[in-house]
Amino acid sequence: MSETINYLHSETSTANGVEIGLLVKYLLMDAIKAGASDIHIEPWETTLVVRIRLNGVLQELVHLPLEYMEKISGRFKVLANLITYQNGLPQEGHAPADPELGGVEQRISIFPTTRGEKIVVRLFDPSNRSFDIHSLGFDPETVEVFLKMLTKPSGLILLTGPTGSGKTTAIYSALYHLVQRSGSTMSIATVEDPVEFSLPMISQAQTNAAQNFTYPIALRSLMRQDPQVIMVGEIRDPETAAIAVQAGLTGHLVISTIHSGSTAGVFARMINMNIEPFLLSSSIIGVLGVRLIRKNCTYCSQPYEPEAGLLALIPREMAETAHFRKGAGCEQCMQTGFSGRSSVTELLTVDAAFRDAVLQKLPTRALQQVAIQRGMQTMWQKGLHRVAIGESPLEEILRVISVDEA
Q1: Which class is 3-125 in CATH?
Q2: DSSP 8-state class, residue 35
Q3: What are the residue ranges spanned by the domains of the chain?
Q4: Burial of 355 from C-beta contacts in 10 A (0-12 / 13-18 / 19+)
Q5: What is the pLDDT of residues 231-272, one digit of tens each?
Q6: What is the DSSP secondary structure assignment for residue 151, as one 8-state letter?
Q7: How would residue 209 be classed by pLDDT, with cut points 50, 70 and 90?
Q8: Average pLDDT, the chain
Q9: CATH fit for domain 129-405, picks 3.90.320.10, 3.40.50.300, 3.40.50.150, 3.40.630.10
């Protein structure tokens, strides 16, 4: 039973009412103990539901009486040093690491809804976060080629994938690798929104829209700081894109993220930001697509047979030899059938043939085919391999990766 439920059922809480500070503390302890990345506290029709995000999927933790809502919201506002009496506007803040919670930091977001305030707490557990590039779950071929890209003195490396797909962790791992490789001989700087983790020997800056410290302004100033490696949190507008491309062409190694449906689609996205194809073909050296899939629980994983309709999506020869496995659910995995996550990648390397295709302004689907002909394995193929070896069920791959990405 969770600490929260134990407390709610204890004689202390029933006799004297619930102490909100203790309740919030137990909610945080339960989430951290479970290895959650986020806590969602949201007023529903009749209850205040608390859900935690485990391995990328929300799970219900406990339902509380609605009358606790304002007090719990007020407690989180105090923790994050927010305006406690302001209820009608969104607020965001940061709660520093608490030794009682194992040094876990909290990023707190409060959002007004028609039923009351919704609270989302992002948890940053330093003991549960590794920036070793070999521990991300990348396949050996991707690690080898990606590390080779990081040895280039200049160029633009882009990572793409939906929110929460592991892009930031992959970039931090790349920067950590560069620090380990070069030590104090390399100047590395970042511009982020927000800075999620403090990295050793790296100058990290956080944008601040209220003070007009935006990505473009920060990058222009940073270029005068003599950096060799620049990390840009996200390319989201034409101005940032233009500066990043220019930096990649003028002797800097630039690593950034950009939202796109596929690795090949990054080029169309950048062209839509008014970047000329000849600049893209000269500056971009690689695009890494990343997704996170849940792995079967090692305690309750067992053989199973996917539905016939799903099996039809797999090549026949693979279906005949695959070892399909799925977690049944147990106490070790909180009845989810899953334990931990791993990365599935698609790494597009820009070589001479691909540059020519970009210069010809070929559509995204054609660019994808050129990359495949040059030896790129698609994310769908990589995902099916994880299914074949029993690491994840087929349904999990379909949840995360579109068949269109084949």
Answers
A1: alpha beta
A2: T
A3: 3-125, 129-405
A4: middle
A5: 999 999 999 999 999 999 999 999 999 999 899 999 999 999
A6: T
A7: confident
A8: 93
A9: 3.40.50.300
Enter the tokens of residue 36. 């959650």
Whose structure tokens read 């996205």? Answer: 269
Cα–Cα dist 113/288, whole Å: 37
Tokens of 212: 């007009």
**Tens-place pLDDT, residues 268-314:** 999 999 999 999 999 999 999 999 999 999 999 999 999 999 999 99
Would you mind telling me the total number of residues written for the chain in this entry? 406
For the beta carbon of residue 331, count every other beta carbon within 10 angstroms: 8
357: which 2 tokens? Answer: 């295709």
Strand order in the sheet with 253-257: 203-206, 188-192, 229-232, 253-257, 155-160, 284-296, 338-349
265 — phi, psi (to 5°)? -70, -15
Per DSSP, the three-state class of 203 is: strand
To which H or E segment does residue 179 belong? helix 167-182
Q: How many angstroms separate the CA atoms of 227 and 297, rounded? A: 44
Q: Is the pLDDT of residue 25 over 60?
A: yes
Buried b vs exposed e over 288-305: b needs ≥16 C-beta within 10 Å?
bbbbbbbbbbeebbeeee
Distance between CA atoms of residues 91 and 362, nearest Å:
44
pTM greater than 0.85 (yes/no)? yes
219 — pLDDT class (breaks 50, 70, 90) = very high
Q: Tens digit of pLDDT for each residue in 71-129?
A: 999 999 999 999 999 998 999 999 988 888 888 989 999 999 999 999 999 998 877 67
Residue recorded with tokens 């919201």: 73
Cα(232)–Cα(248) distance, rounded to whole angstroms?
A: 12
CA atoms within 13 A on the CB side of 220: 7
- The CA-atom distances, in angstroms, between 283 and each of 89, 153, 158, 179 are 42, 12, 11, 23
- Paired tokens of 177: 């690798």
Does residue 340 surpass a pLDDT of 60? yes
